[in-house]
Design a protein that fits this description.
Layout: E1 5-6, E2 10-17, E3 25-33, E4 36-44, H1 49-65, H2 72-83, E5 93-101, E6 106-112, E7 117-120, E8 131-133, H3 148-153, E9 156-160, E10 166-170, H4 172-175, H5 187-197, H6 202-217, E11 226-233, E12 245-246
Antiparallel strand pairs: 1-12, 2-11, 3-4, 4-5, 5-6, 6-9, 7-8, 7-10, 10-11
Helix pairs in contact: 1-2
């Protein structure tokens, strides 16, 4: 996106740090309705220019499909049928697509082989408990059949949202950041950070996570693109919901 998502009822911040000059991670916010927004995060196998080109094509496809399919599951099924015809046999894409309705206070989502989501419901300070959300789903683009297996396995779930809830979307460049001994940062460590610091503003939590990752890797080179979306549900402004929009940000911000 060209800037942060501005929508009453949500506080959102994100980052995308490619391992090379260009990368194969992609996130986006897709305006759907005055009270609904699509949130997308994806990762193409491989890195560099070829991965980035596939992601550029995916962006246009998702913008079109989001206008046709209100169901995340239906959108991913349609995307898989199209993508499988155009990817080479060694390439695939993982993706999570969620539709957040701030008026109904729900999130409906499906996961096509992507890393799990971390969901930390609102709780008193120090009592927040992170949950891992990992419904079934295959990666996009496998040429094993005409999409029947992808459709059969893919699950869609809906969860209620309350003021103060926190959602974390991320790619494996976050959870698999490695220290000099090749140990991974891990989803469990990320979940503990969310529990401990989930009451911080979204921007402050993002910087805390980045700082913990930097401390963990201890100077080891970045081996994969790192992308993360932090989304907090707010109470103010829900009844004044209008079409979501993005504003320009300074170079280097997400």
């Amino acid at each position: 996106p060209q800037g942060p998502l501005l929508m009453p009822g949500l506080s959102v911040t994100a980052l995308c740090v490619p391992a090379r000059e260009v990368g194969g991670d992609y996130y986006d916010f897709l305006p759907l309705h005055e009270s609904r927004v699509g949130v997308l995060i994806a990762d193409v196998s491989g890195k560099g220019t070829s991965a980035a080109l596939y992601m550029a094509e995916l962006k246009g496809l998702m913008l079109s499909l989001s206008l046709v399919h209100s169901s995340p599951r239906a959108l991913l099924i349609a995307a898989n049928r199209i993508i499988a015809k155009h990817l080479d046999s060694r390439t695939f894409i993982t993706m999570t697509y969620a539709v957040i309705d701030v008026r109904a206070r729900t999130m409906t989502y499906a996961r096509a082989g992507h890393t799990p989501l971390i969901y930390a419901p609102a709780a008193p300070p120090g009592a927040r408990m992170a949950r891992v959300l990992a419904p079934d789903g295959l990666v996009l683009g496998l040429k094993i059949d005409d999409g029947q297996m992808f459709e059969r396995i893919l699950e869609e779930e809906t969860i209620p949202l309350e003021q103060g809830d926190l959602l974390v979307f991320f790619t494996d460049g976050i959870s698999e950041a490695m220290d000099p001994g090749d140990d991974c940062f891990g989803e469990a460590r990320l979940g503990k950070l969310v529990e401990q610091y989930g009451d911080l503003p979204a921007d402050a939590l993002r910087e805390r996570v980045l700082g913990e990752i930097a401390s963990f890797v201890n100077g080891a080179p970045q081996h994969d693109d790192m992308t993360m979306i932090l989304l907090k549900v707010e109470g103010a402004g829900i009844d004044q919901v209008s079409a979501p929009r993005s504003l320009p940000v300074a170079v280097g911000e997400s």
